[in-house]
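Class, look over these structure tokens:
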Amino acid sequence: MQKQYLFSHKLIDRFNAAVWREPQSGHIFVMPREVKNAGGKGEPDKGRLILLELDKQGDLVNEIEVWRPDSDDLHLEDPRALVLDNHKVIIGLTAVVKENGKYLPYPAIINLDTSLWKKSLPKPIIIKNLGHGKNMTPVDAETFFFRKDGEGNSHKLYVCSWDGAQIKEAGEIDFSIDIPWAAWRIGTTMPPIWVNENEALMLIHGITIENGKYIYSLGRSKLKKNQFNKYQIEIDRDPILTPDDFVKDGMPVINELHPELRRVVYSCGGVIKNHLEEEVLSLFTNVGDKQTVEVPFQLSTLKQGWW
């Protein structure tokens, strides 16, 4: 895999960014969570959501705050964005809600009409009937993937059907449990990249435990949908990015926000660019919960062996 890391001082202490391209202007929007300090035991890492607008050359043309917690009762994190038709962008994210003194994650949805959007996020739709969990990922205008908390859900995604007002479970996707880099848990990253009507390249994150720490890595999978909208998934046994890819001379190039707990490589978004007649997926990658790094992969390489 091609690995080149594009560091930006604009993305220090900002990570897990939704990313999308505005079709009319071609500008790329990056919406990370900004966290300066780690949360206390049993608390989320608290911060605001920032929107960065990049022009076609990748230069920053605008930066604004689009959401800030107005109390300790609600925190938003890990947005994943999908561009629909007619100026629409749909965002799946995690709403961390404080209930009876405990912080509990719920899936949430935000709908944007970018032709009317005033640069402050609309109020999220928090969905409690699905139970607690994370990784709310838009697949299309009516479908989301979601990972529930709880025993038995570490290697499973739930398929959710959304009609614009209500959401309900519509199926399950079971992942292999014998992938070495995802032995403890598995989940989504950005929305799937559809190769044809029924097959998609889906990047995923996996977690394993080594020496008492959670080790996050990124890998690739092939998602297949049948005529009844039922899904199956096949995972590559080798990851495409691990924390060791960001080590130089035996030391991490970016310090971890939680060095005592985990080593993190994670992503919520990316965008496809054309470079020298080659399609390249520019993956906006969270390293250490401290910085976003843009990592380009040739799309043909990510598809290799499956298409």
Notes: The first strand starts at residue 14 and ends at 21.
